[in-house]
Amino acid sequence: MALLEVRDLSVTFRRKGTPPFTAVDGVSFDVEPGQTVGLVGESGSGKSVTALAIMGLLPKRGAEVGGSVSFEDTDLLTLPDKQMRDRRGRDLGMVFQDPLSSLNPVIPIGLQITEVLERHRGMSRKEASAEATDLLGRVGIPDPKRRLTEYPHQLSGGMRQRALIAIALACRPRLLIADEPTTALDVTIQAQILALLSELVRDTGTALIMITHDLGVVAGLCDEVNVMYGGRVVERAERHDLFSQARHPYTHGLLQSIPRLDAPRGEKLMPIKGSVADNIPWEHACAFAPRCPNALDHCREVAPELVPDNGGMLRCHNPVGPVSATQGVGA
Ligand code: ADP
Ligand code: MG
Description:
The structure is a single chain. By secondary structure, this protein is of the alpha/beta class. It has helices at about 45-55, 80-90, 100, 110-120, 125-140, 145, 155-170, 185-205, 215-220, 240-245, 250-255, and strands at about 5-15, 20-30, 35-40, 65-70, 75, 90-95, 175-180, 205-210, 225-230, 230-240, 305-310, 310-315. The chain contains eleven helices and twelve strands. The protein has an eight-stranded mixed β-sheet, sandwiched between helices. A four-stranded antiparallel β-sheet has the order 2-1-4-5, covered by helices on one side. The longest helix is centred in the middle third of the chain and has 18 residues, at about 185-205. The protein is globular, with a radius of gyration of 21 Å. Bound molecules: adenosine-5'-diphosphate (ADP) and magnesium ion. Adenosine-5'-diphosphate binds near residues 13, 23, 47, 48 and 49. Pfam families: ABC_tran, oligo_HPY.
């Protein structure tokens, strides 16, 4: 059994005066200890809402969550609030995109780490202080002893993100969710943070869910990638398969829109035309059909199911590449 089993997860937002909106729709995936699983898709595809649902951080009112999220033998979705808070302190950690909004601006970094260590790992002040120094050093912050006394605004963006990772790691979580952890950072720092995360996964056996809009980011990090569109997984593949033989036209679009160092100079990036605002609801058709270069009439009439394909999973009537015998389309 996997460490985390997400099954048929759905999130519908209900607000007075607006029609209900399903942001996550039947999402399922597993994460094993030491494994890194990517959730990839454009902004608005439901990645963060998936993460927040797993962490039990969606507002109780207005967000209806369905399906199950098993962590070992416990369904996190039915856990009482207090137990879920304990879990978040102990087993589950999360790193958000914007470290400044996740750090407390009026408390020194060191105290924010030692608090966690005292509360969740029962350390004395002295033990916690030594461990905090060690943690800051491990995430690559130079002169950690001095940095402990500094406030978040005294650190650079990259340092703040490292400090946030240190706080998330202070509890020794068995599952870490990183939601666009490098999006706000410049490219060099991005690479350092990603290297740090992959090192931590390797050294500690922590399971990692890596959320990003950038397929380039998952290239070096994820064992398995789930591509999301309109709240559903449209393609799942092992990292290497995804880059060498992506089948969904949307995945192809994402691949063509990442800058590649090995591409000939001057070659244009190809953004996917249209935006997620062009989605059709999945009940009526393939949500991606209005933007899809491969769309057939059939795609605008019947929503495709997620089915096994080529060693992975695919939700598409008319994929790129050879169509297998079981995948006839009504065209
Ligand atoms: P992303 O893939 O960029 O992380 P999100 O998961 O944040 O996307 O959002 C998915 C969709 O759900 C978006 O259309 C967003 O507007 C909507 N959404 C997110 N949070 C809420 C909320 N609290 N209430 C209503 N709609 C929301
Ligand atoms: Mg997001």
